[in-house]
Amino acid sequence: MNSVFGSVFWLLVTLGVLVTFHEFGHYWVARRCGVKVLRFSVGFGKAIWKRIGKDGTEYQVAMIPLGGYVKMLDAREGEVDPALAGQEFTGKPVWQRIAIVAAGPGFNLIFTIVAFWLMFMIGKPDVAPLISATPQSMAAEAGIRAGDRILSVDGHDVATWSDSMDAVANALLGRDPLPVLLRGTDGAERTVTLPLNQLPAGEDIGQYLDKLGLKLAPMPPTVGTVLPGKPASLGGMQGGDRIVSVNGQPVTSYEEFQKLVPADAAKSPTLAIVVQRGQQTLPLSITARMESLEGQSTGWIIGVTAMEREPAILRYSPLKAMGASLQTTWSTAESTFNMIGKMVTGQASTKNLSGVIGIAQVANASASMGVGWFFSFLAMVSLSLAILNLMPIPVLDGGWLLYYLIELVKGSPVSERTMMAGQYVGLVLLFTLMGLAFYNDIHRFLPS
After folding, report:
1. Are 189 and 151 in contact, with CB atoms under 8 Å apart?
2. N or C, which terminus of the chain has less Cβ within 10 Å?
């Protein structure tokens, strides 16, 4: 699937699912509280599909997919038929209005837990956290060595590469020294401290990760598959052979081997390759060919593939998956609130915000990595929507909840004038936030 088309498609799938679930929360609780729902809309603007349900509600899908709404019978928007006065929203007790408004974020939270639960049952294919460090980087100076396995980050156990990097990324927001427990290639365990406090303030996570220099360990120079009838097979190479040298040049990673083969074959197609097979060291003579392999561009090939990285996948029983889901939801929410707090106080950069372009790219990438990854992505976005909507900003659910809590305290509704002023302030804040996120998305495409 084309990356642009794929990004748009999976963005629409993501927003369609999450917005529908959010609005259904408002709708379902409103109906249970006896409020008449006039319209249930996924998207804004002109309707591209609609129908009237048996309950009298108009259901529609609108052209602009960046949200949705539930329109209820509301005396503030015009005259209400006296026969329907008992189904009008503002006439309901304040606790019912609070329940209706809170139901949207609440359903997003439920969706998050279910999506994480499904992810843990299906499994999210990953690789083991075997790492290395870019030369002269912060990680290298802290003592990270090629082939180290991360066991825990800041005291929290990790089992996969993505979990490790998520933990490091969260720590980068605070830029405090970060202890990392490692197991070296010799089997010995040791703790190194990444001096994140030395990172400059005001940069986004991507820039911090570049400066940190932490990366997956290079693949060992071990042959995975030898293609039948190709030069390597004809020369006697076998799967599992470890490449020692090419034309006398030592090889320490599969990436080095991939570069040496075409470079040396361009000088002379016959290559002297030494491999280690078990306890034996064997010299092989392999004559490379100039051809296209598996749809790739034409080049010098010998017909081998690399040994795959060590897999790591978290897959649990339904009961254990639910426990892991609740724990992950809690820790993710905690990290999100931590990030928001640090951005508000200036300790973390607002460059970390992403808009619809960034979401679309991640949606496409996660969908291409498998069902488990896409459920994980949906859970993260759903939780973010729940938290965003609970912020006490007028026009968002959190703003209405603030009004109703004030009403509970003072015993009477907030004045219409105050509500209108709050709505204008809320719109300015919301559009500023959206504009900043969109600017960050665009800025990431520009050369630094």
Report:
1. yes
2. C
